[in-house]
Design brief:
The structure is a single chain. By secondary structure, this protein is of the alpha+beta class. It has 2 domains: 164 residues, no CATH class; 211 residues, Alpha-Beta Complex (Transposase Inhibitor Protein From Tn5, Chain A, domain 1), CATH 3.90.350. Helices cover 44% and strands 19% of the residues. Strands 1, 2, 3, 4, 5, 6, 7, 8, 9, 10 and 11 form an 11-stranded mixed beta sheet that branches. Helix 2 packs across helix 5, helix 3 runs parallel beside helix 14 and helix 11 packs antiparallel against helix 12. 38% of the residues are buried. Bound molecules: zinc ion. The site of zinc ion has 8 residues, from strand 3.
Length: 437
Amino acid sequence: MNTGTKLGFSNLRKSVSARVNEIAEIEMRQVGKIKHSMHDACLSALAMMYFQDASMLEFQRRLQEQTQMNNLQTLFQVETIPKDNQLRDIIDAIPSQKLLPIFNDFFRLLQRGNQLQPFQFLDEGYLLPIDGTQYFSSETINCPSCLTKGYKNGTINYSHKVLGASIVHPEKKQVVPLAPEPIKNSDGSKKQDCEINAGKRFLNRIRQEHPKLEIVITADDLYSRQPFIEALNQNKMSYILIAKPSSHKVLFDQLIEKEDLDQAHLLEWQDNEGAIHRYEWINDIRLNGNKSAPLVNFFEYSIIRDGDKITYKNSWVTDIRVTGNNVKKLVKAGRAKWKIENENFNTLKNLGYHAEHNYGHGKKNLSFNFFLFTLLAFFMHQIIELKDPLYQIARAKFSAKKEFWNQLRCTIRVIIFENWESLLGFVISPPTDIRAP
Ligand SMILES: [Zn+2]
């Protein structure tokens, strides 16, 4: 039914297979049988993340023994289910940056299928919130890329962090993830990597990969400092960054002066429940006290209840000129996040973690590569939610998304399906004449 569409499951899976085979051929200089085992390892990892099932391989091995068939083969074209240590060794050795182009492949498919344009919220460009996430932490398990933090009592904490970014629209549930940037230590470096440095690398890479894409970066207070704003300007990206009074003293002092001169603008409205929404803004003020301080535009938003109780207050700096016409929209844009509002992501993050429990942390790239497969599976879910009509029908049969995926997981443990569509078809209308023998 939907097998032929560019944004269907099969085509996404094919595009991953093509990249993985390319990596095996060019990067790893492997041929024949070894190439297959690399494909099988990567697609098995993707399948585990896609179905959010860390024991998927075990169940499919059982099906294979019983019936000489299994769903990893039919749905993901895995020829031979890899052994656990084989899967770990192969994925550990893949240089992570070689997997990043898969994100662009999905992105281009969305672009060509006219599915990106509906995500545009501001005229200035696509909203792209960026944010650091820790996805691994331990006091014993570690690898050379681990970030380290020593404590007075002698213990060391090892962790992996990543700078994540997804295109969002404040009124859409789905998001479009871009390839994330690892926050990690590189070989021989004594200095710990940090979120801001990863942020700057991310901006450069995204600009290289998407030279013409109009982007509005949103981020928290950590990023609203001169070096990062200069990196944004260099990469011709717009921004809406939280700016707190505690970290922007000079900026907030100017506000008071300007307010005295009556240069501040104010807009207020009252909602049905009586809460007052107050917007205040000033254009062209200095970010800080430096001689070379960039000029920024500033806006603030507060919600006031019961006459004088401020129940919400936040403030931002932006390069976009703030007016009475766009200030409400800018506040919405500044508040839109991708991580917190997305119920799925935490499950997926945990799944990456569970996979790591089964397969280990690795010596090179295993931990981050598992994270990448997790995010790719999440990306596939986003596209399928947007574009797969059969998915939408099947999903509507269940009130909770968790229950829907639970059903898929259980079903593929016992029945073999030719393809994704026949699995969904089964879930939509299960045969009524099944009886245990
Ligand atoms: Zn590590």
